[in-house]
Structures are given as C-alpha cells and as structure tokens.
Design goal:
This protein has about 150 residues and is mainly α. The chain has 8 helices and no strands. Helices cover about 65% and strands about 0% of the residues. Helix 2 packs antiparallel against helix 3, helix 2 runs parallel beside helix 5 and helix 2 packs parallel to helix 8.
Length: about 150
C-alpha cells in the first residue's frame, strides 16, 4: 500500500466518498481548499446521490480534469484539450474498470451490495486519480495546477 491509498482511507474515515475524495486530492495538490466545491461533489457520490447510477469515481474524475483545465471565471479560457482529456479518461475507465466490474454504474460495480464499497471503491478511486494525473501530466499540468506547454 502506498501513501495515496492511506490518504484515501483517511478521507473515507472522515466521511468523504469517491467524487469528493478525488476533488479533495486535487485541491490539496494545488494547495487550495474549497468546501463549497467539495459539498457540491456530494451530489455525485454513490452514483448520483446513492441512486446507483454513473459511478462517482467516473464523474468525479471528469470533474477533477475540469478543476485543472476548465474555465472558472469570465477572464479564463477553457483548455482547448479538455474535451479530449475527458474522452481519453472515459474510454480508459470503460476499458479498464468495466472489464473488472461489468459496467460504469455503482450498482453494477458493487453488484447491488453496498457492503462491497469498502473492498472495491478505494482501489477504484486510486486508479482513477492516477489516470487523471497521468492525463494531466501528458498535457503539461503539474499536480500543483501549474501549466507548462
């Protein structure tokens, strides 16, 4: 087990889940705090409010890409590669994680058994974070949010 995994467990023990954890990791890497954003991510946990729909790690990963490369104010421009980064991430998720679990929704990933959350979600979130950071690095972003072309 690595440092990231222990951080995931720590955040989980504090009551945060998949999508929130991903954004907390990104914000921490950037040296930022944004409780409003973390609170908003609550709507994605458990497949959109525990409805079992699209996995919160998948939607959270997309949001994490947006945190780095999206438009955040009227003066900013969205990175023109953001949609390609999102597509790459979603394709990876569908190939890698769907192969393991049979789908991209929480009910499928957990086999309709919430008890599977503790066994599956930490590794899934760790894989997602690693892939998002790799995509960002390939596109010139450092974890701190700095961009180099």
């Amino acid at each position: 087990m690595n440092e990231l995994f222990f951080k995931l467990v720590e955040l989980s023990q504090q009551g945060f889940l998949c999508s929130q954890i991903l954004l907390l990791l990104g914000l921490e890497a950037q040296g930022k705090e944004n409780p409003d954003l973390v609170r908003a991510m609550n709507g994605l946990i458990g497949g959109m409010g525990f409805c079992g729909k699209t996995c919160g790690a998948l939607t959270g990963g997309v949001c994490l890409l947006g945190l780095y490369a999206g438009k955040g104010s009227a003066e900013e421009m969205e990175d023109s590669r953001l949609h390609e980064m999102v597509r790459e991430f979603v394709e990876w998720f569908e190939q890698e994680e769907t192969a393991k679990y049979g789908g991209t929704d929480c009910n499928t990933i957990l086999e309709n058994n919430p008890a599977n959350r503790s066994a599956r979600c930490p590794q899934l979130v760790q894989n997602v974070y690693g892939k998002v950071m790799a995509i960002l690095a390939t596109n010139g972003y450092s974890p701190s949010g700095e961009y180099s072309s």
